[in-house]
Design goal:
Blueprint: E1 2-3, H1 4-10, H2 16-24, E2 28-30, E3 33-34, E4 41-42, E5 48-50, E6 53-54, E7 62-67, E8 96-97, E9 106-112, H3 115-121, E10 130-137, H4 142-150, E11 153-154, E12 157-158, E13 163-170, E14 175-182, H5 189-196, E15 201-209, E16 212-213, E17 222-224, H6 227-241
Parallel strand pairs: 9-15
Antiparallel strand pairs: 1-4, 2-3, 2-5, 5-6, 7-9, 7-17, 8-9, 10-14, 10-15, 11-12, 13-14, 15-16
């Protein structure tokens, strides 16, 4: 048995708080009866509908994908461009990406059908470490790395301190390769960091997310997350949000 609002959230319909609002508004039915009590418990045999639509009770699945370049982090695209779901032919569950990577960014992306898990991962107070390898034009100096590691102002807001390592730099080729770990989820943050130093990005890949690593997966390949990986990742986020 599970609380009704948790079942709705896990189905990806809404966050748990929004699910409580839907229940209070009388928009949720259990076995055809309107339910407005928050403590209502439901089983897998109960039929739950939201706004007249029965919610799915499929098994929860969690995948780690090495997102290919030039794919959209969405379940569909009105311009007909490839989406990350094109990598999952034969997967029957209605999965969706947790967060986003840019069109030209590759690397580690989680997809799931667990709405509650996804909301937890994307919560503004979640400061999971996310590590990227980035190749740029320009010679990225140790002074630049020090400034970036202390935080810089982007769009009138200072970034959180980051872990920055210069993996290689070449004056002859005028290129550098960095490894950067950030602890927030601002839109296009790594690219904007590099714009700050006038170092255009040539290649960007996310190689680590929390306790997860991309490993040997090639672009477009994926694997299921193991139960202990999910538990550890959830514990990392829950611990961070309780501080």
């Amino acid at each position: 048995m599970e609380r009704l609002q948790k079942v709705i959230a896990r189905a990806g319909i809404a966050s748990r708080r929004k699910a409580e609002e839907l229940i209070a508004q009388g928009r949720v039915r259990v076995n055809r009866k309107v339910v407005t009590e928050m403590g209502t418990q439901v089983s897998v045999n109960d039929v739950v509908t939201v706004n007249g639509q029965e919610i799915g009770r499929e098994e929860k699945v969690y995948y780690l994908l090495n997102k290919p370049k030039q794919t959209i982090c969405s379940v569909s695209d009105d311009k007909g461009r490839p989406t990350v779901l094109d990598c999952f032919e034969g997967v029957k569950e209605r999965i969706f990406p947790v967060g986003r990577l840019d069109y030209d960014t590759t690397g580690l992306l989680i997809l799931t059908n667990d709405g509650e898990f996804a909301n937890l991962m994307m919560h503004p107070r979640s400061h999971l470490p996310k590590t990227y390898e980035v190749a740029v034009d320009g010679v990225f100096t140790d002074d630049m790395a020090r400034i970036l590691s202390n935080g810089i102002v982007i769009e009138e807001k200072r970034t959180l301190p980051a872990d920055v390592a210069v993996l290689s730099r070449s004056k002859n080729k005028n290129r550098s390769v960095l490894q950067i770990t950030i602890f927030e989820g601002r839109n296009r943050e790594i690219r904007k960091m590099m714009e700050y130093f006038h170092c255009p990005v040539r290649r960007l890949a996310r190689i680590r997310y929390g306790n997860l690593e991309i490993g040997n997966l090639r672009q477009g390949e994926y694997r299921k997350l193991r139960s202990y990986e999910i538990k550890k990742l959830t514990a990392m986020v829950s611990s961070d949000q309780s501080e």
